[in-house]
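Reproducibility note. Readers wishing to regenerate the assembly model reported in the main text can use the exact inputs given here. Chain order matters: entities are listed in the order in which they were concatenated for prediction.
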Amino acid sequence: MNCTEFMTLLPMYPDNMPDEETRSAFLLHAAECPEDAARLAEQEALLASLKAMDEDMEVPAAFTEGWRAALAAEKKPVRPASRLRGWAIAAAAVLTVTLGTSLMRQGALFPGMTAKQPETPAPMAFEEDALPAAGGGSYAPEIFEEDTLPQMSLSAMWDMADWEVEEAAEAGAKIAKPSMVIRSTSLSVRSAQYDADLAQLESTLALYGGQIAYQSEETAPATADEAAPGRMANLRARVSDADLDALLSATASIGKVTYNETSLEDVTDSYYDAQTQLAQYAAQQERLEALRAQADTLSDQIELEAQYGEVLRAIETLQGQLSLWQAQAESATVSITLLETAPEALPEQPPLAQRLAEAFTHSLRNARSFAGDALVFLVMIAPYALCVAVVVLLGYSIVEIVKKRKKKENEK
Amino acid sequence: MQEDTLFIRQAQKGDVRAFEALMARHEKKIYGLCLRMLGNREDALDCAQDAMLRIWRSIAAYRMDASFTTWCFRIATNACLDLLRKQKIRTSVSLDMLTDLGRIPAAETGDPHAQAIAADTSRALGHGIASLPADLRSAVVLRDIQGFSYEEVADILGIPLGTVKSRINRGREKLRGILFQDAELFSLPRVQMDERRIDA
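Running the prediction on these inputs yields the following structure tokens for the assembly.
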């Protein structure tokens, strides 16, 4: 170590030397260099003097008495420390921001700044008149003017031939031809309680006057949905057309309807055509009966008999068809398939980890949205807060100035 | 100390007597700090009194996480620095300082010459300390006179430890340069002037 290095280290001696090695080299140099040894002695003397400066210092009585007297003169006692004050302020700030943001999101604060929800499209308005009526879309019957209709049963009305209708029209009675619509409904019902639902179906049919025309039971074929299917019951019943809608409503609550089809067959034109033909054949029958009575020759009689027979057969066929259509129009056909299924298993809950992850993701999304809204809220109240802060600062400054002036006056 | 903790808690509740008992152990050092920092008795009295009041007013906010002594001296040092800033003085040593200087090397010999040198030494020490810039002065006073450790000095002044060490080194160097212009002050053999670094 040289003298320059020694002088650089001198102020650091003895308590701030870089390391022991440096200290050893420093002291070794002092032992070898008389001038630096003297400087070292000066430094040690200086530090000793500084250390001893206050050892026997006496505290002036004026100081001791003075600060005690000043303490006694303090008007306000020292308030106890409130460690919770900081936490209370922070809690109040968080509560203000949370409450303000919530009110803002609901539109109670700063209306117009509510987060715009995606507009859900209004449900399409259906013009009811444009839709077919519920229940299969049966044609509305012809409008009857009840005041002008004679009191006739439906059968009597259906039995009228065209010429009779014309005569009635000439007589002034306005009669409209009723529609002849054959309704058929097919239902497929799945049931986890097969026996109970089957019994309920049968009783419901009976309640509405339905007559079961056909009933069978078999094992349902396997499907993609049902690997182990149960029983399957097929019912076909005839129900009064007027009671069909009520019956369908009553059966809607039985099991789970998976298929519902209603078909309509309008045979009105065919029916009245057949009626017209029947009338014509009836007239022809009368004429043939008159001719048979007047037939002179055997050949004429044979020919007339043949024609008469044909007419009779045509009349029977038409009458049969008319009766069938009439019966079908009066009663609707309901075909029900009841399929036994296994009870629906409760949906399995996802694993706990998945639920926790979904809950966390959902909360994180909500928290992010709330944080964004909170930031908007803070920006919106910033001007108000700034005004309040300026007012408070001004007030505080004025109070401090007044206090200092009073203190100076007291000291004078 | 548990007794100090009890006094502190009572003082925080407003017990003046507890505060007086607590500060009785620290008032001498606080006064000594103010005296060395400001260089004259009058300013030291005012500043020390102000420091005691500041400590009283702030004790409610004192948390037990730091040493009470360093906390008090932080307040007292700030009071000294505040006063220095207001006054913007580089203090001169008054004759009154001679009565407060305490034991001085070579002052106890009874030798009039030695006593004269001791008085000069005391005066020179006070002058030298007062001549230091406020930042170096506070570090030297707290470390070399008050006896605080480097870490405590850093805590009191609120500066890094490295800065404390640097200020103390520079303060000692400046002080040495001021004081050893006259080798007789410390009764040491004279060293060639041209070989000294004078940084006064």
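We highlight two features of this model. The interface with chain B takes residues 7, 10-12, 15-16, 35, 38-39, 41-43, 45-60, 62-64, 66-68, 70-72, 74, 77-81, 83 of chain A (CB under 8 Å). DSSP finds twelve helices and five strands in chain A.
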